[in-house]
Amino acid sequence: MNKQSETRVRILDRGLKLLSVQGVSGISFGQLAEHAGMSKSGLFAHFKSKEEVQVELLDRAAVLSHAHVVAPAVEAAEGRPRLEALVANWMGWTARAGLPGGCPVAAAIFELDDAEGPVRDHALALEREWRRILGAHVEQAIACGHFRRDLDTAQFVWELCGIYLSHHASLRFVRDPKADRRAEVAVQALMTRGAQIGSPTKTNRRERK
After folding, report:
1. Please, are residues 89 and 72 in contact by the beta-carbon 8 Å criterion?
2. Tell me: the pLDDT tens digits for 163-176?
3. Whole-model pTM?
4. Which of 15, 128, 156, 196 is the most exposed place for a label (fewest CB within 10 A)?
5. Measured between alpha carbons, how far is residue 30 from residues 15, 27, 104, 119 in Å?
């Protein structure tokens, strides 16, 4: 990695903490330059626009999330154990990653919901990719026989994401000291229901496809 690339990585790493606290719209060249210990003109040598910085920071957040959430879960056995490890790592991962605020992508979902443009499009692409990863792990659990074969994967992922966002809001905004425990109970209830034959969420898998 050359010096220019190293500087770019350093800017993004320091900008991640700012993104975590301030959100996407809170990122400015002035603030980022200050956090990176350089001038605004020096920052322009690495990024052409504010939108480019925002997109790169979201990507950096995704890379950091993968390292703290996805990578460690691979050590668990395939199927439900790996899915459970993945979800456990996912809840509150920013604190373990050293980010002072909440999840940048989760915050962007609310912050950019009525916006248009490349930054929203990129945040949406990251969210869709994450839901695809979750879905792949659910399908793996089905293939391993840990969940029933007619489980609605899309619905399961939808509910998992709902639990995560509720945990995020309860932990960061409501500051509920029981947020972690409530999320754990909700996840385990969902997992148990996914393994039960004749669950009320039973659907025809061919119809969903």
Report:
1. yes
2. 999 999 999 899 99
3. 0.87
4. 128
5. 11, 9, 20, 19
